[in-house]
Amino acid sequence: MRSPLLRLTNSGLYCEQGGFYIDPWSPAACAVVTHAHGDHAVKGSRRYLTAESGRLVLQHRMGPRAHIDGLAYGETREQNGVKLSLHPAGHILGSSQVRVESRDEVWVISGDYKVAPDATCAAFEPVQCHTFITESTFAHPVFHWAPQVETFAQIHEWWRENQQQDKACFLYAYSLGKAQRLVAGLDSTLGPIFSHTSIEEMNAIYRLSGVSLPETRTPDSGMTGADWSRALILLPPSVRWNVGFPIRGNFSTAFASGWMTLPEGPAQRRVHRGFALSDHADYGELLNAVAATNAERIFVTHGYIEEFVSLLRSRGYEALSHRTPRCQSPPRVPEMRQTKLAFP
Ligand SMILES: [Zn+2]
Ligand SMILES: [Zn+2]
Question: Considering 230, 246, 275, which residue would you say is the last residue of a domain?
C-alpha cells in the first residue's frame, strides 16, 4: 500500500511527495497557506505560497521579510510530480481551497469557507475530488444564516435607531475579513464609518489589492461631536469600547458573528445586540458543499467534528475526524428538532 498523499504531522498537514505543508502551525520550508487568519498562517516559514489576491494580506501578517509567492486561482504548479492548485473558498480576500493531485488521486483541503456572496472576495467554487477535508465550525442544525441582505438591513435599522437617540454605534467584528465585508455592505450614506487602527490598516491593504470600499476614517482623523451621534465605529473584538476611541456621548454596542445565533451570544460578548453574519458556511451549506465535491472520503476538522462525522456516516460517506491541536471544543448548543429544517 502506498503512503497517503497527505498526512497529519506534529507541524500540520504534510504532503511528503510534494514537499509542502498546508497551513502548518510551526515554521516549515514550504507552507501553502489557505488564508491569513492566525489559526492558519504562522510566521517563520522559509517560503509561503498563497492565492495571488491574498498575497498582500498575508505579507502584512507575516512581515515584510517573509518570502511569499502568489498563485492565481485555478493555475497549476507542479512540485515533484504533485499538481497543486488553489480555488476560491469565499471566506476572506485571497482565501483558497487547496487541490492536490498525484497519480489519479485528488485531495481538496477546504480551509475555512463560506458560500454566501461577499463583495470583498471571489465566490466559493466547488472542486471535485476523492478526499475532501472540510471545516465544520458551524456544523450544527441550529446554525442557519438568513440572506445577508436581511442581516445588513437589521444593522442599518439599528444604526438609524441609535442616530435618533444621538448614540454612536460600536460594531465589533474580526479585523481581517469580517470588518471589510461590513464596510463594503454598509450604506455609507447613513453616516460616517470609522474604524479602529487595526481594521483601518487592513482596509488599506484590501484597497491596495483592488477591493473597492467606501471611505473609512480613524478617530484621530478629526472626529467631531456631530460625527459621534451619527457614526458607526468598527472595532476588533480584542478591544473594549473605551480603547482607541474618545468617548463623546452615549453609544450602543453590537457584535457581528455567526455565534450571535446562540441566544446567549450577545451577553457573552457583553454587547447590546448580535448580528449573525458569518464568514463560514452554515450547517446546510456544509452538507451541500460536501455533496458538491463528489468525494467518497471526508475528513472533518475544526468545530462540531464528532457531530458532523456521524451525520456524514449516516448519509453513506466514509467520514473521519481530523482533529489538530488547533481544534477547540465548540460551544454546546440546545438540541433543535432537525425535522424543522430541510436538507438534501
Ligand atoms: Zn479563517
Ligand atoms: Zn480558521
Answer: 275
